Amino acid sequence: MRKNIVAGNWKMNNDLAQTEALISDLKAHTKTSNAEVMIAPSFTNLWHAFEATRQDDIEVVAQNMHFADNGAYTGEVNASMLKGIGIKTVILGHSERRAYYNETDESLAKKVDAALANDMRTIFCFGEELADRKAGSEEAIVGSQIKNALFHLEASAFKNIILAYEPVWAIGTGETASPEQAQDMHKFIRQTLNDTYGSQVADDMSILYGGSVKPGNAKEIFSKPDVDGGLIGGAALKADDFYAIVNAF
Ligand SMILES: O=C(CO)COP(=O)(O)O
């Protein structure tokens, strides 16, 4: 059975004091839906966030990590560092990482392998750019992003993968994919999984939508049969908005 998940990607926002304040605001809200709740603060605040939410129904996840076990990679963080402070899930392949830090399907495949080798779950992000959609090649792009980074895996690995479809043109732009566009792509993604790995992997996969999800549009997007939750950017920075989305299921 797949899970509903609402994850807040805080990106490069919130210093320690702001992290403390937002977590205390989040803790004042009640979850009335069945969604799993995750937040992804910056690396420097992960430990504090983990400690501050120990007793709560909120999982703290990382926004990125390196694929190597250790070594001369100045400025990077590896899986065992994350695991050592209690982090069990990592976001990989966000379009901002792909665009600004040259992350590729190939390097992401290595990161996914490192996460799996360390018994961590991955929220694997992908999505087409506006030009791709205008050219009608969004399914070809998304299909290749998924296949190149994930289809070397055994079927059993997919229980530790969560997919997040984030069309680049909808991120931070106020432009949301319509619920029908999201559903069409999520259905295509599930079919792509089904074609290679069969119905068990496909049916059990949680596929999140990300891109300008807000309290006002979450319910309609989440009502689609192949949309199992959201990866939320801007609206995750306000506790009221975030919990309105969490409770939109
Ligand atoms: O990139 C996103 C989440 O990872 C989406 O960001 P916005 O919700 O701000 O569009």
Automatic annotation (TrEMBL):
Task: Report the Pfam families cross-referenced here.
Answer: TIM (PF00121)
The enzyme's first-digit EC class, named in words, is isomerase
Listed binding positions for substrate are N9, W10, K11, G172, S212, G233, G234
Where in the cell? Cytoplasm
Any one GO molecular-function label of the UniProt entry: triose-phosphate isomerase activity
Q: What is its EC number?
A: 5.3.1.1
User: Active site located where?
Assistant: H94, E166
Q: Which domain of life is it from?
A: Bacteria
Per the record, the pathway is: Carbohydrate degradation; glycolysis; D-glyceraldehyde 3-phosphate from glycerone phosphate: step 1/1; Carbohydrate biosynthesis; gluconeogenesis
Q: Name one GO cellular component term.
A: cytosol
Q: Does the keyword Zinc-finger apply?
A: no
Identify the SUPFAM superfamilies for this entry. Triosephosphate isomerase (TIM) (SSF51351)
Which Gene Ontology biological process is one annotated for this entry?
glyceraldehyde-3-phosphate biosynthetic process
The answer, when asked if Cytoplasm is one of the entry's keywords, is: yes
Catalytic activity from the UniProt record: D-glyceraldehyde 3-phosphate = dihydroxyacetone phosphate
Q: Which UniProt keywords apply?
A: Cytoplasm, Gluconeogenesis, Glycolysis, Isomerase
Q: What does this protein do?
A: Involved in the gluconeogenesis. Catalyzes stereospecifically the conversion of dihydroxyacetone phosphate (DHAP) to D-glyceraldehyde-3-phosphate (G3P).
PANTHER family in the record, alphabetically? Answer: TRIOSEPHOSPHATE ISOMERASE
Q: How does it assemble?
A: Homodimer.
Protein name as annotated: Triosephosphate isomerase
- Organism this protein belongs to: Psychroserpens burtonensis
The gene behind this protein is: tpiA
